[in-house]
Amino acid sequence: MSERPSNADLPVLPEPGRAAFVFIFCVSLFIACLISAAVLAVKPIAFNLFGFGLLVPVGTFAFALTFTATDVISEVWGRKMATHVVISGLIIRLVVFGLFAMGLTIETWVPWVGPADYWTAENEAAFEFVLASSNRTNIAGMAAFGLSALTDVFIYHYLRERDRGKNRLWWRNNVSTIIAQIVNSVIFITVAFGGVVSLAALFSLILGQVAFKILTAGLDTPLVYILRNFATGRKLLDFRG
């Protein structure tokens, strides 16, 4: 019988403090936005950009925040930790996909389960519309998320190592996010909406997502600086590094 590990053999958890708070906050933000984006992506909205009408899934903003979280983790805790968070997010997406599928089909494979008396056909139709669509966007999201998130982490760390010692956090944050978001948009929109909407609408969705993400990519840069500064004990408005 093997001996139980001593306390000295157990992993050491971070001490409660600023760094631990920021890490937990970033991981929580990452997971919350990742899951929210899968559901919110069901609804596209139209907005006018310099006279051009573009379609954007509502989940785009939520997904954009996942890159804020991974960039902060990359900056403070390194590439390996950011990669662990991305892989964990992919596993969570699989879990959510399974839970959605269960919610849609449980009455068909569990003999003693049926809908409640007050659950109408209209309720079921609305439920299926959201979750069935969410399952498709979940599959699209898993493919797009895995490739784009790893792209973001790779480019961010390549630029971080190349520009070490220079004041370019803003540069690596924006470049890695924009490229990764373009990768994500093309894959996600094609898989999620291909065959469901017209080619014109498909192109508009891709263009809308890319335009929206490029416009908003710079908005998260101050937040990346502030979270990094809070975690590392710098002044909150220190924009060096």
TrEMBL record:
PROSITE patterns, per database record: PROKAR_LIPOPROTEIN
Topology with regard to the membrane? Multi-pass membrane protein
Query: Which ranges does the record mark as transmembrane?
Result: 20-41, 47-73, 85-106, 139-159, 179-204, 210-227
Tell me the keywords, alphabetical order.
Cell inner membrane, Cell membrane, Membrane, Transmembrane, Transmembrane helix, Transport
**Annotated InterPro entries:** YhhQ
UniProt cross-references to Pfam families, sorted A to Z: Vut_1
Location of the protein in the cell: Cell inner membrane
Q: At the top level of its lineage, which domain of life is listed?
A: Bacteria
Keyword Transport found: yes
Instruction: State where it is primarily located.
Output: membrane
Function of the protein = Involved in the import of queuosine (Q) precursors, required for Q precursor salvage.
HAMAP family in alphabetical order: Q_prec_transport
Which family does the entry's similarity section mention? Belongs to the vitamin uptake transporter (VUT/ECF) (TC 2.A.88) family. Q precursor transporter subfamily.
Name used for this protein in its record: Probable queuosine precursor transporter
What is the species listed in this Swiss-Prot or TrEMBL entry? Hyphobacterium vulgare
What does the organism's lineage look like at the top? Bacteria, Pseudomonadati, Pseudomonadota, Alphaproteobacteria, Maricaulales
